[in-house]
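Render SMI1/KNR4 family protein in 3D.
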Amino acid sequence: MHPAVEQLTRIVPPPAERQPRAWPTIEARLGSALPEDFKDLVDTYGGGVFDETIWILEPDCADPDYDLLAMKVERAEVLDRLWEIGPEPRPGQLEDDGAGLLPFAYIEGTGAYLYWLTGENVRPEDWTVLANAGRGPEWEYHPVSSARFILSVLTGDAHSDILDNLPVDDHTFDPNDEILGG
């Protein structure tokens, strides 16, 4: 298990035993490999929401709003339209050749998303986090993995204006199958 996910399990108990995903099939459908920490996160917790705020997008979620593959397509279309019509600027990190975004979490009630900053010559294990406010032009760059970012935000070790009101104690995780009934 990835060290960040292992640390996360110490502060947020995961739900009952989960079935590992068929990651090679999911990655083939997605058209990309995924970071090991994210695969461990989903295999440990499943899709769902940390502290009623950070929704982890899971592959094959019954609700397309929380499905990793559906949101990859939707967010790409939304951002392309936004940047095409302006006036919101693209984050500077996307100026590198082959740089891209892939969403991995949604922030409840804000329209904000957490994205991996991907690259043609960047291994998924080296993808870092770009957070977008969703209802404004604010982007935050966090040079850590997705699981490390979530852990750091929950413990208060990382600051994010986009995720500014999370508690630092008494964390919870609610799985999609309990919330969404699927």
